[in-house]
Every structure is written in structure tokens, then in C-alpha cells.
Amino acid sequence: MEDPQFRITPVQQAAASCTVTPLDVVKIRLQAQQKTASKCFLYCNGLMDHFCGCGPENNQKHWFQRPGHFNGTIDAFIKISRNEGFYSLWSGLSPTLVLAVPTTILYFVSYEQLRLKLRSLYNKHNNVDPSQQKLPFWIPLISGATARVIAVTIVSPLELIRTKMQSKKLTYSEIRESLRSLVQQSGVFGLWKGIFPTLYRDVPFSAIYWMNYEFMKSLLCTGTPTFGQSFFAGAVSGAIAASITVPFDVVKTHQQIELGEKTLYTDKPTKMQTTAQVLRQIHKHRGYKGLFAGLAPRLIKVAPACAIMISSFEYGK
Question: Which GO terms describe its biological process (predicted)?
Fold first, then answer.
């Protein structure tokens, strides 16, 4: 009845991030050369989002502030590899992996255990033969959504600390004082500041992804899927989930940028725009197309990341 012993390694979880990181490094370098009023932007390397501070208060030159002018994506790939070395395409990956790998492991373990438990309860309640491995669509949907809520909730305070440490190079005593001030001003729940924009995007994506993946896997095979079958099902499921949740991603990016500037450059509690306000603002200035902005780059990044992650996950079971 149970799947083989669940095993997963940091190497497997880092594989997807290492593969798609160059895409975001190039995107960030292109963004950084533009004159922008924003003091920070998001760097998403396949495992988690990472704030990059670039305001005048940030005097240190980070990898995304290196000199260079690029005329497009291909030009950036060529010039970065030629002038800074091939490994520069993976800039900024190490600090993210420190927190992202345990988070991703927690996410996959939570999903697997929830799926097995719900399937066992369903089979027992409906007197289903365990050998049939029956899996209604709602089991991976609920398991995926719940697993993402668990992972995001646990990691949110740690991500807040990591963001402050990397942006301002604060000492541990300064971090402790900053957190104490935040709790005094906003209460304990201030440590989860900005969690809802993340949940708005990640929970629907996770639910849709796992539901489609389990369905496609059942169509492709009756037993344990091969690496190729898992890779294909993961890529297609990731593309479907990414397409449906693009508006959530656009809103989340806007809200996280706003939150990032406040997190990096002030400790004062300030009111953020709600999801509805951001949606209205985007629609007012850019129409419905604005809500689906960045669909192509998102698909290019998300589909292979999901394919690599899930095929490694299945292979490690």
C-alpha cells in the first residue's frame, strides 16, 4: 500500500535551482542596468525568491551591480560568460541554497506524507483494494496546498532574518535588536510579515501542479514511473500551473517588491497595498494583459525546474 521508503537529498533538490539560475541572473543583470525608482527587486532561482537591494543606501557592490551594458538576453549570456567567467551565471546561488534546500525538503516530505495518509484513509473508508492504488484528484490537490502552507509558514520568519542579514550585513546582536523592535511594534505576527502574498501564489500553484502531475502520471504508467515519464509529467504540469497562476505571480511580485523595500530600508510598520488594490492598479494601467505579464519567461523557467525537481524526487524514492 505504501510507496517505497521516501528518500530525498539536498543534491536532488538543488538540481532544479542550479539549472534555472542562469536565466534569472541574466534577467536581474538586465534589470539592474536600468534606471529605476525601486530600491530592490526579486531574484527567483527556482527554489525561492531572494531580495536584491540596489538603492543608494546600499553602498556595497553585489554581483548584480557589476558594470556592463547588455542589449538583450543572448547578448547578456555571451558577455557575462566571456568577461566574468562561465560560473558568474550562477551568482547569488549559495546563500539562497542554505535556506531553500531544507525548505524544499520539508515541502516534499510534507506532501508525500499527507498524500499517503489521505490515500490510506480514503481506501479504508471506501473499502478499496490497496493494490489498486486509487487516488482521487482531491488528494494531491489538498496535500499539495497544505504542504506549501506548512513550508511557507515555517520558513517565513527565517527568510525575514536572512533578508536583513544579507542586505545590511547586520551582526547577530543587531538582528536580535531589530527583531525585538519589530515584535514590539507589530507583535509576534510581525515575523510573518508578507506571508500572504507568497501564499496567494504558491498555494494555488502547488495544488494545481500536484493534481495535474498525479493525473498525468496515472495516464503514463500503472506502476513506478520512469525518469522520462516523471520528467514529462512534471514539465507539463508545471507549465499548466504556471499559466493559471500568472496573475497571482504578478501580484505577488508587486507586493514583495513593496515589502522588500520596507524590510530592507525601514523597520517602521507601514501599511501595504492589499491584493485587490494591486489587481485594480495593474488592470487600470496595463489592462488584462498586465495580469499575465511575463508568462513566457515564467514558463521557460518553471517547466524545466518542475520537471527536474519531480523526476529527481521520484528517482530518490
Answer: mitochondrial transmembrane transport
